Amino acid sequence: MNLASQIKAAAWREHLAGARDRALPEGARRHAFNQIDVDGPDEDPVKTLETVLGGAVPDHLAAELHSAHEGLAHAQSRAERRGRHLAALAARAGHATLAELVAAGGRDVHTTARLLETLATEGHQLHPCARTRLGWDRHDRERYDLEAARPIRIRLIADRAGVLERSGQDFRDHPMLRGLDLPDPVLPVHPWQLEHRILPGHRDLFDTGRLQVLDATVPAWPTAAIRTLAGHTAPGFLKLALGIHITSTRRDISPATALLGPRLSALLGALHRIGDNGTEHQHRIVTDVSGAWLPGSRDLTALARSPLTAIEPEGLVYVPATALTATSPVTGMSLAAEYARWSGDPDRWIRAYARRFAHPVLTKAEAGIGLEAHLQNSIIAMRGPDPVFPVSRDLGGARIHLPTLPWDLELPQGSPVNAASMDQVRSKVAYTLFQNHFAALVAVLERDLGLDGAAFWDDLADELNGRLSRAEREAYLAPRQPTKALLTMRLHPGKEIETPVDNPLARAHDHPTLDRHVKALASPASAWIYDPAGVRAHLEFLRDRLGHTVLYAMKACANPAVLAAAVAAADGIECASGGELAAARAAGARRLAFSGPAKTPADLAAAAACDVPVWMHAESVRELDALAAAGFAGPVALRVNRGRALPGTHQMAGAVTPFGIDESAVAAAVDRALGLGLDLVGFHLHAVSNCLEAEAYARHVRDSVEWSQGAARGRFDLRYVNVGGGLGSDPRGARIDVPALAEGLRGLATGGAELVFEPGRYAAAPAGWYVAEVVDLKTMRGQAFALVRGGTHHFRLPAAWGYSHPFRIVPGPRPGPVWSDVEVRVCGELCTPRDVLNGGQFVPSIAVGDRLVFADAGAYGWEISHDRFLAHPGPQQVVIG
Q: pLDDT band for position 469 (50/70/90)?
């Protein structure tokens, strides 16, 4: 887009002067977060904005727009020459796309990344003033801007008297300076900054010899950040104070940033991982290794960054994310579209790309580190057309919530990095990762390849919803998101202005009518509320993503409405008792599986007489004998305790448990089953409960299939491998990453055997809520207690597992005292100190009569509770949807 079109798009996105109340600009295409593309003539940008505002544009903004317009025109003419050169290179090499040329090229990773970054001619895609360069004339842009034709000679200032302060390593040890004869510590400075800001502003330091400008220089190239330069003869990056007005502000570097960069980089570099299903270590950081500054000055300040060559493994291409949205001079489509089309499946490509960034960035955010994950600060390591791992750079724009950090960090006084709350951390990520980064990629793929953007956002929302805590869901999946109103802010310099935009990731965290049902409960309220439609949706999602048989484990939740929904959505029902078998058959199940370690003769007789197909999971040789005696003629699978323990809440196999047949006895059990004439079809290998790690679970599935094939080979026809349940849905909101699990199973060969999953918790947990009304508030030895109608005899899981289940408050009438800003322990009505639902949660306010809603509680809640203790009345059962 030209600058006039960018102004129209920004005005629409920011709802400037009521823009969204008017018709969409002519030739505009809608995208996520109220972003639009506008086709239109290259008009005077000031007049365009005057039309939007219905009045005059302030002088300062008119100057910025004129600079941006002139700078963009100049840059585009220079970029066209470079584009023709790249297109000619591709033609001579026989490559149809720039992506293929880059993958086949022999240049070092630094040169390749720098050249790709020069494609980003338009700059920040959401900022109309992206090419503003107030302070530079045409000659300066020729010499120092992104499209520079020859390296910039970075100057070096020797700190002869030790007047500068430092953080991290000595600059002289950086690869770009190594080898120079530098007896004194030095500060690298931009040549324009030296001439126009440093020497005029700090003459006394040079006149007295405390600082000295050296003859030695360091050749480097500007990146899209302009003041960050990449080494020409040696790899690495130097971020330098520049002192001109770019986009929205004067670009220098604060001493606080120079101090913090190496400190934070060292901490992140030493951190192997923070959660994320064991894949966090795949996220790389281009670390700040050196910082130096003159106290009280933003001119004499610099940072040094590690080179890309410090990142392993080798043999990859490092593509700046800004280049992905730029137009390839070879094909005329975006570089992202070239990669996505080359991959053979653009839908899968963008989903894989998004997953590479989303998981580590969101995981670090929950650890208190909100990375500025927009396009300009992101790099993707590519192998051919495939994204391998993400790289982040420039920690100066991060937001850090010190109380949440997993280690101690001291921030400089007044540092803008210091986040006052986790909301600020999450807002930083939501804006930079989703609105700035992913939205830009999806938009160009919609334009170039016809990508179904709505489907992408729906799938991403489903994936995130399965792994986010409730607080994260409320931050990232809300119907509206704040966006930086960049153009509006230029009308009001110095003010941070946000405007709400529609969020394509929006998901209802609770059923839309839940609060109405909570408020309608008779007082004092204690109730279970279920959403059968939610259960059905989760099971359908699993069947679609996994592509294999899904049986609902009704032990997780046997509410009749939930069971009916599972019968309709799953391939069948897994039962663990004669009672469950009868209930599932009565509910209309088309297929049953029968598990459980202590089946009685009556259970087996009922299974043998069942008029619905039953797959029997035999727990022992004794059970095989009993099955034959009962006349069971259906398929039989041996339950086996084998393999290594999986991460999860309860180990069912790979540990000493009473479940199944010991692996050493399998051969004898196979012989016995065949000798009895039973229809032996395979194995049941349920191993764990509540596994949240997709990678580990995928290994379990692959290992189970391989082991089953070996155990059956030459003895019977393997037709059935049941890997059990255990797909995690943590009571605190985290869920196993099903798309990642499906990706981990891609290409799995079962040899014709049916592969079966038995989820219960995954489908039921998010579709059930426990509600308990506060009947008393008291303080005991400084601890505040909220006592509720109900407790662990209705909802036993928190006591059984020893955790605090999060809750939210639906306020009641509150006729009495209201406690504010207090941490309360939530306990029930039983005569035991273990009747605790939450051991301590901070609440803004709470009063008697309020109703506490415990979400993600629908699995193993009422089913495992000891409701007969003390003969309290049971909870109300409510079905919604």
A: confident
- Kindly state the average pLDDT of the residues 6-12: 93
Neighbouring residues of 820: CB distance < 8 A, sequence distance ≥ 6: 844, 845
Distance CA 335, CA 119 (A): 9
Query: The pTM is what?
Result: 0.63
Count of CB atoms within 10 A of residue 424's CB?
Answer: 14
User: Residues 756, 720: contact at Cβ < 8 Å?
Assistant: yes
DSSP alpha helices (H): ranges in 94-197?
98-104, 109-117, 138-144, 191-193
Buried b (16+ CB within 10 A) or exposed e, 354-392: bbbbbbbbbbbbbbbbbbbbbbbbbbbbbeebebbbbbb
Q: What angle do CA 100, 103, 109 make, to 5 degrees?
A: 145
Angle in degrees, CA 858, 862, 864, rounded to 5: 110
Cα separations in angstroms, 565 against 363, 518, 536, 542, 762: 33, 22, 5, 14, 14
Residue 663 φ then ψ, to 5°: -55, -35
For 617-631, 647-661, 750-764, which range has the lowest pLDDT when averaged over its residues?
Answer: 647-661
Give yes or no for a contact between 283 and 360, defined as CB atoms under 8 angstroms apart.
yes
Per-residue pLDDT band at 362 (split at 50, 70, 90) = very high
3-state secondary structure 619-641: CCHHHHHHHHHHCCCCEEEEEEE
Q: Which two tokens stand for residue 42?
A: 């290259």
Token digits of residue 192: 């324009």
What residues contact 95, with CB distance under 8 A and at least 6 apart?
Answer: 101, 104, 330
Find the angle CA(759)-CA(601)-CA(585) to the nearest 5 degrees: 45
pLDDT tens column, 633-643: 999 999 998 87
Cα separation, 136 vs 145, in Å, equals: 10
Instruction: Calculate Rg over the CA atoms of the chain.
Output: 32
- Going through 27-99 in order, the beta strands assigned E by DSSP cover 28-30, 36-38
Q: How far apart are CA 622 and CA 614, in angstroms?
A: 19
Distance of CA 876 to the CA centre of its chain: 37
- How large is the average pLDDT for residues 747-774? 93
Give me the count of residues in the chain.
Answer: 881
Degrees, nearest 5: CA angle 473-791-578: 90
Q: Which of 103, 110, 116, 107 is nearest to 316 (CA)?
A: 103
In angstroms, how far is CA 170 from the centroid of its own chain? Answer: 35
* Per-residue tokens: 690: 């509540």
Q: Are strands 819-827 and 836-846 parallel, antiparallel or unpaired?
A: antiparallel
Whether 423 has a pLDDT exceeding 90, the answer reads no
Report angle CA 342, 348, 351 to the nearest 5 degrees: 120
Domains present along the chain, CATH in parentheses: 3-110 (no CATH), 111-502 (1.10.510.40), 533-763 (3.20.20.10), 766-879 (2.40.37.10)
Which three-class secondary structure state does DSSP give residue 403?
Answer: helix
Give the pLDDT confidence score for residue 458 in this predicted structure: 78
Burial category of 239 from C-beta neighbours within 10 Å (exposed 0-12, middle 13-18, buried 19 and up): buried
- The distance in angstroms from the start CA to the end CA of the chain is 46
Of the pLDDT bands very low, low, confident and very high (cuts 50, 70, 90), residue 733 is low
